[in-house]
Specification:
homodimer; alpha/beta; TIM Barrel
Chain lengths: 260, 260
């Protein structure tokens, strides 16, 4: 099934726009998990088993797996294969971007080796750097647009010209021939989110930055709309009770939206 | 030794501004190599052994290794460890970029797992996404500025405002507190290279796009200056005689420059 089909089905079935970011950190793992033979996969499996009926997607960020070397990436593959069996889509947050033939190698790694349903890409190098990803028609491609970190103002929203993030949103709208594109917009900027939603129509918008990064949940839900995917990572996976935390956020999202 | 120290020493010793891109592709490997037990490392080792006195750096692009899964990344690590013994610096072309704590995980992977002396980063997310790399003071950080692919015009050089690539060059100049920054400028744009060189002073400039991509070698050498690192990948490593091809390009670069 296509990413967008899986996403809509999961959102509908679980009445949820919540995506859980699997941003692992061995220093924060419980001792019991650290003592297991495969701590990264064991940790993820426990989170997944506890939250499978509460989410519309899972989003591991590959950086945290790469930092643990070959073992980290092997555990990432086991994690995505495990999620693949559940019907919930996996968004592998990788933010890749390179010239065409190199981007094709990255796309192969992300969709065929790591078995993701969707990924994030960086637009800096323009259309031909994103195209090899888009050419996987059944996969989802979230193009970085406006991010929630402090550095967003250096280039994405620099003064004195049409903000770069609006130009990116307009380009992604044009690139969306196969209906598999989306954008990433941080939860810290709900006025800008509204403007971007107006440009990109009903594309999925991945909205990180609530939870540990403290973004504006209400504005993100309202302006993100039905396909606004709210991502929280550390605030859920390292909570004393991840299921309770995920349920609380899922329900809060639904209260702010028109779903319920 | 720091990246910049290794780079200058190798350039001086080998009288070379040539960097060879180790962009592997099993489909183009000789049968003898394919039949070996570790084809990726064997291929790279042969290229390195043949060209070690002709280059100032080697530049594997991690995408091509990721595309071969866990084995590809294991072979990448063996390759960088092999190059590390020679004194020639390794630039791991990875173009990463993410929020601060995620960028820190990427930096750890690149410098501590993959053992690179330098890397390329994407500036789209601004200063805090680049800072964790820069904080490795002895490592080299090449920030993408103006690239040689066709998509450069989508954002980097869009009309109607100061070109983004000039803004990036100015920001990198400000970020260079530890003297370990550089920029990436494609060989297709020598007028722009001249303008960027004027901004960034004596920073290293990594210049891909000669060779298979057909960039302007003479302009790249002249405007790139002493620390203009000319990269060629497929045109050398898949040549019938890689050493002859590397020597030819090294000597051509030197003819165009004032070194010889």
């Amino acid at each position: 099934m296509s990413f967008i089909g899986k996403l809509d089905a999961a959102a509908d079935k679980n009445q949820s726009r919540l995506c859980i970011g699997l941003d692992i950190d061995l220093k924060r793992f419980p001792k019991k998990i650290l003592d297991s033979s495969d701590p990264i996969f064991s940790f993820n499996k426990e989170i997944i088993d506890q939250t499978i009926d509460l989410v519309c997607a899972y989003k591991p960020n590959i950086a945290f797996y790469e930092a643990y070397g070959i073992y980290g990436l092997q555990a990432l593959i086991r994690t995505t294969e495990y999620i693949n069996q559940t019907g919930i889509p996996v968004i592998l947050d990788a933010k890749r971007g390179d010239v065409g033939h190199t981007a094709a190698a990255y796309a192969k790694a992300i969709f065929e080796i790591y078995k993701a349903d969707a990924t994030t890409v960086n637009p800096y190098m323009g259309h031909d750097s994103v195209e090899p990803f888009i050419n996987y028609h059944t996969k989802g491609i979230f193009v970085l647009c406006l991010t929630s970190n402090i550095g967003f103002k250096d280039f994405q929203a620099a003064d004195g010209r049409e903000p770069l993030y609006l130009s990116v949103a307009k380009h992604v709208k044009e690139w969306n021939h196969f209906g598999n594109c989306g954008v990433v917009v941080g939860a810290t900027s709900s006025t800008e989110l509204k403007a971007i939603r107006a440009i990109v129509g009903d594309m999925p918008i991945l909205i990180p930055g609530v939870g540990a990064q403290g973004g504006d949940l209400k504005g993100s839900v309202q302006h993100g709309g039905k396909r606004g995917i709210i991502n929280a990572s550390r605030s859920i996976i390292f909570a004393p009770d991840p299921r309770a935390e995920a349920k609380k956020l899922r329900d809060e999202i639904n209260r702010f939206s028109k779903i319920n």
